[in-house]
Protein 1
Amino acid sequence: MALIRLSSPHVYKANSTANVMRLVLIATLPGILAMTFFFGWGTLIQIALACTLALAFEAAVLKLRKRPPGFFLSDGSALVTAILLAVAIPPFSAWWVTATGIFFAIVIAKHLYGGLGNNPFNPAMVAYALLLVSFPVEMTRWTSPMTQHGGGWEIAGFIDTLQVIFGSVDAGFYDSFTGATPLDVLKHRGGLTTEELWRQSDVLTNGVGAWYAVSAAWFMGGIFLLSRKIFTWHTPLSMLVALFLTASAFYGFDPDNYVNPVVHLSVGATMLGAFFIATDPVTSATSNKGKMVFGALLGVLIYVIRTWGNYPDAVAFAVLLMNLCAPFIDQYTQPRTYGHNRANRGMKGKNQ
Amino acid sequence: MSTVLTAVIVLFLLAAVFGIVLGYASVRFKVEGNPIVDQIDAILPQTQCGQCGYPGCRPYAEAIAGGDAINKCPPGGQSTIDALADLLDVEAVPLDAEHGEEKPRSVAYIREDECIGCTKCIQACPVDAILGAAKQMHTVITSECTGCDLCVEPCPVDCIDMIPIETTPNTWKWPEPPSPMQLIATDRGRGEAAAEAH
Amino acid sequence: MSKVFSFHGGIHPPGNKKRSTRAPIGKAPLPKTLMIPMQQHIGGPADPIVKVGDTVLKGQLIAEPISRISASIHAPTSGKVVDIAAYPIPHASGLSEECIVIEADGEDRWIEHQGLGDYTRLKRVDLIEHIRGCGIAGMGGAGFPTDVKLHLSEDHIVNTLIINAAECEPYITADDMLMRERAHEVLGGIEIIAHLLRPSHVLIGIEDNKPNAIHALESVLKHTELNIDMVVVPTKYPSGGERQLIKLLTDIEVPSGRIPADIGIVCQNVGTTAAIYRAVHFGEPLISRIVTVTGDAVLHPRNLETLIGTPFSTLLEACDLRPGALSKLVMGGPMMGVTVENDQIPVIKTTNCLIAATAQEMPEAPPAQACIRCGMCEQACPAELLPQQLYWFAKGREFDKAKHHNLFDCIECGACAYVCPSSIPLVQYYRYAKSEIRTEQRDQQKADHARLRFEARQARLEREAAEKEARRKARAEEAAKAQQQKTAAKDDTSVEQASAATAEPDLKQLKTAAAVARTKLKKAQKAYDEAAASNADNLAELEAALNDARSKANEAEKALTAGAPAATEGGDDNLKQLKVAAAVARTKLKKAQDALKNAEEKGLDGVDKLRTTVATLEQKANEAQQAFEQAGKATTPAVPEEKPAEVDIKALKQQVSIMRTKLKKAESALEGCEDETEKARLQVEADELKQRFEQATAEFDKAEQVLIERAANSGIDLKQLRIDAAMARAAVTKGERSLSKAESDDERSQIEQDLVAARAKAEELNLTLSQYE
């Protein structure tokens, strides 16, 4: 009788990487819907474009690396990367901006490092940072949200949006639908106090509501993933708390020049970053303790870069910097093993 | 001129200070013996078989420390070469076939009724693992035998066999799980590949 | 009810327990042959005490433990031993081990056995010995021999006894059914263990998915006086792990690398307690156990009371195996069980479950994907390890780092692999890493041992070679010395004579010179050796220097030995005095003679007077010379017989020559004399002198004759003398050698004294010998 000899365990939880990725994709839906609602078709078009390109690049690279594309494509990680990049860039970005970003994310940031699980940096954020540095004008001209145009204005139509993304750009049309983001406005204040800015800026008075709504949508998606135990609460919570506390400290100290902590939490990519980017397991710290440290430092870094850096938003840079630190954090935040008085720290040297 | 002088003097003083410090350190922290040889020796399998061309593991360790190749030890095999490469920070190379092949560990066994008691194997044994006297039957102390097979050659009646050590449930090793890359060669034959690997 | 704590991690796999609890515990059919492995647990194997062909009764001891941690094995049924050989055993390796094969006779006849009655009156040691004799081993996991645990109260303070009734693994219901149906046996066993260990309280840990068992236990617990707490813990795998259960019930962690007894806790499985009960109250050894036979491939999953040694196939048939449905046969639970390759493998003491799984039930693990570091394994790990880090280390063969990350605290529960979304066989990686590390350690130990033995042998060989070399050198040296002394002996006499004739050599000076020469020689030798070792270029030069130093040292040594006897003999001062006296006498004589001559030539008056003076002086000079010479001879007492003769001869010779001179002088004086009377008187005198001369010559000849005769006579003595001399020389070299070997200063000085004496003696003998040769 031929039976197979295998190592235990012999049963497995019905769980797979593809499943994890699928859940993540589901969790992005509220955010995508909110963005589409407030910023128009651009987001959806960008997502479709990014996903197509990502799958194509991934398949091509897998072929080059002599790996079975079907098996690896099915894990869905390329789609997650594509969506995260697509929602991070302005909805009216030209197609070549997206293409460049996806190429960089999939080919350079992911596969050149050995593919899924081996990349030290979050591919979407690497691509975003590259785009931001390479095309600063395009990347900071965000689509004006629907609410900003008062009652009468509509968001750009589907065909118009397609034309903007793929066709020739009519400067007037483009300008009429885009503007600065709230963080941009708060950054380039031109000597005004925060309060004056809030009163004067159309972006802030009318447009910020859309941003709040989008953030709420991302938050909902995050809570869904948390409930499905795709990640633990440690990273998002510690990041949001750290950002909030840092912002509160400065706001309480000088409310005229520093931004309200609630605004920090609810504009820009804070929620997206906290639940979808910082929690990327491949590039973040491992242990619960490590995740707390990772999240907290990330929160502080976001505030620092937002407040004193050159770019209005800071999630991408902060995440990349923290990605660098993750292995180091891992070394010093190993959990205390059962039966041990204290945790191991650092790495045992070769000759010790 | 004075700056040049100052510079010269300062440099001279610095050189003197560092010289003194280094000299002191070289005396104070003098390393006795050659620890690298000990470390190499600790990695070698100590079969003392001489297949490397040296009369024992220690001489080979000394030779390695002196720059000899690390791939001359068949009993240690690839794992020893890897460990040496790691220790010496050199590239791991495959075993030099000239010195023999990596064989499973074995012990010498004397067919005792054929033994004529010549003591030649006793003289050949590098670890004194053979018991016996002239004109008396000899036997191998299995637990002390390193499996170097140096006793096989001198035996005039060829009554010594090298018997590979059998794996018992106590010494059995879990095999390394097949690497995923071997497992998933293509999309099509995924299931079969997985089945074959086990 | 005690508080329940919690442990980190854990998983909730589907239980699949209900299906096998529907039917009561059945009795497995008696198989035709039973195979009883000699090693059924950790520790040493048992040693068979039956032979092939022996008839055995049920419960008869068939193998004895050979080490402390080992258990007896009894025949599970009556029958005949048909084989004792290696057969496949239930082990992950699928390898074979020694088994006793018993062909059942179908009668199932018990050997005579009886319980102990009131065990509380027995000595505890005897009770434990009885339990050991019944071959009781842990029936939960590793099968640790129970008696070892029961001895623990001797060197540990046991304050908590934990009865492990958690049975956390899916599928398994053996303990559940045991508690349901035989709760009193479990309690009886607990009472015995409590009697032996005297814990302050007893805790029974049971998962809340066994309400019937909890109920059954509760009902029997009412009747006990023991302080027993039943703690119902939430169902979570692996709460039945010893360390996890301890954490659950007491919130204490067992320190890494220690046993629970170190913190005052002893754990026993419920199955074991029942076995102890049967052993103590009925004298039944552990020959059967309850096995859960389950899985989708059997139609009627149930628990069966099974004899140890029953092949799995018998059990599967008893539960109606669906033909063709079986794809995986697992011994133990799905999380930690072992897959077996064939169904002829026997049940052993630790076999609590047999899962006949279909392909749908336990599908092939999907191919492993890349680790995405999702951290789910870390959330599930009950030992709070970092499974993914361990995986990277094991995969990269970085075993040191894996060890540093506490790989050996892994209990291989499989929770990490269960939750892994990438389907990585994590547990196998850890097992692989662990066995690699263990093998490495074993090899290292063996290598170290071999190194020690090799070095010991090297040292022995070197010692032997050195001894051989030393012996060879000593022989060569001896030969060389003998040769040297033969030639040196001749020189020695001349040196001796020279030293005696000329001024006395200063012994001290000679000694220093000799010592300096020796040191120089040593230095030269050392330099030469070093140079030889390092293959220096100036080897020839050094060799020349060495030879030079050696010859110098030899010379100095020679001079010293030549000087030594003369000096050491004493009488040194006398000799000198005499010498001086003789010299003075000679001078006086010469002066007187000169004066006489002068007077004679000038024909002065005082000639006569002068002549008498000369005569007396002559006499005195002779006397002094003679005394000196005699004294000189007396200083060499080693040749007492020969000496006088020699002295005489020398004296006589001298006298003869003196007489001759005198005669000649007298004759010349006679010729030169012109005065007649004077001439006549001189003539008389010359005649007289002539006479005396002739007399002296005659005497000398005579003495010489005697000496020659005696020398001829002493031919045999000469031989003897030679032998003596050689022996004395040997004694000297021996002394020298022992001197070089001597370690303590006292010893050395003693040897040095001896050596000096020996050297002197050898020198004397040489001297004597040289007189004849």
Protein 2
Amino acid sequence: MTAISMSSPRAIAWPAILKEAAMTAFVALLLTIPLVGLRTVDRPTGLGLETRWNEVAAAVGLVFLGRLGLCLIREGHAVTVLVLAAAATAAGFFIAMPTEALRVILIGGGAVIAIRAILAIRTGRSKLSQAERDKRMDHIAAQVQHASRWLGPIAVVVALAFPFTPLADRQLLDIGILLLTYIMLGWGLNIVVGLAGLLDLGYVAFYAVGAYSYALLAHYFGFSFWVCLPLAGFLAAMSGVLLGFPVLRLRGDYFAIVTLGFGEIIRIILINWYQFTGGPNGISGIPRPSFFGIADFTRTPAEGTAAFHEMFGLEFSPLHRIIFLYYLILVLALVVNLFTMRVRKLPLGRAWEALREDDIACASLGINRTNMKLAAFAIAAMFGGFAGSFFATRQGFISPESFTFIESAIILAIVVLGGMGSQIGVVVATLLVIGLPEAFRELADYRMLTFGMGMVLIMLWRPRGLLAHRDPTILLHGRSKGGSGGPAAGTAAAGGQGIAGGSAK
Amino acid sequence: MLKVSGVHTFYGAIEALKGVDIEIGAGEIVSLIGANGAGKSTLLMTICGSPRARMGRITFEGQDITQMPTYELVRLGIAQSPEGRRIFPRMSVLENLQMGSITAKPGSFANELERVLTLFPRLKERISQRAGTMSGGEQQMLAIGRALMSQPRLLLLDEPSLGLAPLVVKQIFQAVKDINREQKMTVFMVEQNAFHALKLAHRGYVMVNGKVTMSGTGAELLANEEVRSAYLEGGH
């Protein structure tokens, strides 16, 4: 842990280094035997075990070499290690490996060690201290937050233009829709968790209410998507208020547990109210959205409705609907974002943030806590409802399976990893949490493993979330433009002084 | 202005206030002193409505506020700087002050801000700093400043000197004196620092075990033999 000066390479203490590397390799062995070495497979006779000792051996060997490299950097042989690590990375890139996983470990591990070596060469130290690293990371986070002022609009333009680029095939558009759905949910939950500071573990309940509202209204009354969208939002908001009334007198952990329960209650009602909701079979044949009720996206629409492609004189393509859905969720997500950005500058949003900071002080300042929390809950629920009915119309089929606790957990993970209250953080975290597993689909079994590793790394490096940096929403009048950089610089500096700043919540 | 009569407050089965009577007139600074656990803070919190008084009455300018929700009090003109300061740590100083004016008349913000910043020039220096990164004394100033932003007529202070260096305590008490003199603000203060609190106050009360045992002008109490031996031991 200590930073050791390495001006002069010392004689290498091989036994100590080998011992350290062996210890690490041993830990890796213990971890990889159950995680990688054993695999259950379906056999005609039942569940069977398959072993993969080769992978285990490869992983342990690589960990051993990696630790050795780190030790050598510490001992002052950064250049040698850099060359070797770069070679390993290159080998991962160019030489065919027996398994995909091995390749990823080789590239990833090699790159990490190479970066470490470069750092060591540049700074003359093997490792940055924790406080120093935090400070740098905070600085980067602050910069990203600042950059989001122009980065945000650019991202929106890119997202808008994306369907017209040659890249946009069916699969990528679907991933785009998936990402945007989670971004919207993340932004919605961010209102409750990030702004108002209420740990909601059952957000998926409102998502489910929205989805089932649309599905059932369409199923029983034949309402169209455009009628149902506001209704679904309204019903979800109502369920938020309904839950909020009894629950909001609770605080902290107790609050979280009850919201968790609520999420499960909704799901179990959906399963058991067989006659009405279709139970575990779900509801299928949910109508697809039309082009604002004017035109349909089918090749040959029913009597009396126009076809989208004919209306615009286009060749029929099933992609049209997908692109429309993509834009729909993009707009919905942006609405949530604009709402949050705006509300932070209004008394309502301020009061939410104050509640997150200290809710007893809020009462003494004349803020009606119950109403504020209810408002946060209802509004977030409404956005969840919108997302839910979008989900229903996109899938065409919903069942309680889609609304399990893990969904709540993923959305919450997005908000927390992004840095609570950070809008751009939610986007980055969604790209990591949802995007990475999609990108690593070819890794098959190791997908979730990489996902877990990513989580652990974030916990180690950015325990308060990737972009946990908050800019004040007002500045003193009469300050020059140059002065407006002050607050961020001020916080960064304060964080660096290592007072409460760096880690105080 | 504020009248507390026969108030009993319970924490579960434990009786924390055993029939307290206190009166605070307009324009006064009144200090309540007492040992740890005497019920000083409980009285202040009971005035604010949490916990509620189980018996007795609390009136503010003739209006019964015994059962009034905490957040309504600010609108009547009672501001509170709670125990432990309770500033919003991740918000900037300016945002904290702005939260204080959330119930104030629209348009009053700039004026009140000016007044608070004149009272505590230190806050002006720190205006865009995150409140949680300030020193304890600065945080206390912020807590008082935030309470003042709502343009109250009665200011309740809970242990403003807690955990602060003597020099800072002096500054804070001086500020309280200034507010009282210049803005005719009525102040009710709960303090362990009996010497400073009584020196500052027009009148004082002494609380022992949930009961008010003594009252008088600040000077009288300071001179009182019992008070001296119980609270001023060691001399300041």
Protein 3
Amino acid sequence: MGTTIPTLLLSLEKQTFNYSTMKKFLPLLFIIVVLYGCVDCGPQQELTVGINFHREKDSLHLNQVYALGALDQQIFNKQTEDFNNSRLFLTLAFPISLLADSTTYVFEFENRTDTLTLFYQRDFYYKKDCGFVVDTKRPARSEDSKSTFSKVNVSYDSYLMEKVTFTGGTGGNGINVDVTL
Amino acid sequence: MKALLSFMIVCLVCINASAQKIYSTPVYVGIDVVKGIPSYVFPEKYFIRKTLVIEPYVRFNRQKPGKSILISAGFAKGRSKIDPSRQVSSQQFQGVYIKMAFEASNRRIPISGGVGPMFSISGFKSNYQFKGPTFGDYTGSFHEKESLAFGAEGYAAYDLKLNKKLSLRFLIRNAIAIRPGDMPPPDYYPGIGYTKDMSQLLFSGGFSTQLFFRCK
């Protein structure tokens, strides 16, 4: 009715500005939405424990390590190699059995053999938008491990992160073992 | 199975009894003649395997011309196609459902459209697997005994008259339903259809063929 050409052009310019501004912010909005909606599903495969070795003598040579009841010992060859190539402190990841509430590892050193049995409680459940997940808990029994090593300390944490953040999240450390040879 | 069949018969009788007041002749009874058959003919390719689906219908005209009501009570039992790449490779399902539709028909061409509520009670059984390359795979089982879903179904149908008493109905249908609770997504939901990877909001469509017999 009373719309002039300059008014029309101004409104068009405003619309273009709004559209281009929106276009710039869209990726940011997308990232925020994606991160806000992030859920840690946790592990949906065989779990691993982190074993931290504290050795007083760096000369100790590991000939072989294996797990009782393991169908495939391939992974342990790499762990043996890493152990022998490292110095005083070292952390290695070892798979644990999902078929039982304990896993036993045998460490064959040059002049001695040690065993380490870890106890845990498996927890399988359905998690919305993720599927079935597996986690572990502290064992119901009083002892958390059995070993011939001089000192073993086991700490239990969930394998699922408590909170997912920009930097990765908190928690989700799983089982960690400190072994003093 | 006996209890389910009795339940379906009682439902149909009750519905029919209460419908006495509103219907006018003719009354049709029908059954789905396609559902479940592909699962026997192509058990390896179709998304469900060896699935028994019984879906009888009662259709009666309302007092208004071109308007009718369709009521069905169905039963489905079978399993979904095996997919070893998935954590849950296959599911077994069993369920009963009731559907009702308010239908409107075109007077000149035998085309109808209907929409109405649906309700399903189903159970699901499955095994899930965690790959264990070192110690061997772990297999667990899951059993959801009673899962409820409710929603609506709409369809468009074409009726082909075979003789005075029999007619075939070809239809395209779409169902949408809500399933409360955080349960694993069903591969096939009795009364709704293919619902793979849908957890709470179920949505499925398909084609079907029904055979109707005119009673009165």
